[in-house]
Amino acid sequence: MRSNIITLAHQKGGTGKSTLAWNVAIELGLNYKKYGFKDFVFVDLDNQESVTMTNRLRMQYGQQPLYITRFTDREGEQFRNFINEIDDETLVVIDSGGYDADLNRLAIIASDYVITPVSSDYMEIFGLQKFKNILAELSALKGEGETVKVNVLLNKIDPKAKSFDDIEEFIRETKYFNLMETVIRFRSDFKHSIGYGFSVAELDKNSKATAEVKMLIKEIETKAGLINGKA
Q1: 98, part of any domain
Q2: Residue 230 has what pLDDT?
Q3: How many domains does the chain fold into?
């Protein structure tokens, strides 16, 4: 079936999650009709409000803004009602907070497709270990035989780095993780584009950063069933 709730989530900050969420949201949010959806909503759960503030810059620079709705950690019931009212004709992208909280757990368990960005630093394994424990708890809530899985994306990677054996091995050996094929490298265009409220593709459609984001979108389109309807 086609996924219609896509969440970017990790229980730790500093992974580039919100920047990635912004670029994914622009690509999907401006093209949702081609996937057969009638509406698009971006949900900002991060208390840093990075995407919400970037969207304000976007309006200042004359670009078509995203429709964004926010929920704070104290608005769990409102967020639950929002999730329950979402129909299959609305595409939703969620930027969860980079910390463990009930609101962020709800976003994960309610989502059809979850992306978890991590760098290739060995220390990232410790963060994923804690996240694995959270996913195990969420799987237990869903019931016997149910496993909550996330799709781990190597993000903010040194452009010269070629091997990620340690973290890839950990991801592949953990039943709660799927390793994505796309790799997003550390590119200055991500920082520069945010300053204008642009995606990297809008800043420079021919850049290396744009090529990598386009690869990511194609992978999401296929694996989340946006194109062929099979998630």
Answers
A1: yes
A2: 45
A3: 1
Q: Would the pTM count as exceeding 0.85?
A: yes
Helix, strand or coil for residue 21?
helix
Closest by Cα among 46, 48, 121, 93 to 199: 93
Write down the residue that tokens 């994505």 correspond to. 180
Coil, strand or helix at 35: helix
Amino acid at 34: K
Are the C-beta atoms of 128 and 177 separated by less than 8 Å? yes
Whole domain around residue 179: which residue ranges? 5-223
Q: Are 118 and 10 in contact (CB under 8 A)?
A: yes
Whether residue 149 is contained in a domain is answered as: yes
Report whether 133 contacts 105 (CB < 8 A).
no
Determine the pLDDT at residue 100. Answer: 95
The pLDDT value given to residue 1:
64
Residue 63 DSSP one-character state: P
State the chain's maximal CA–CA distance in angstroms: 50
d(C-alpha 142, C-alpha 145), whole Å? 8
| CATH number, domain with residue 86 | 3.40.50.300
Asked whether residue 231 is assigned to any structural domain, the reply reads: no
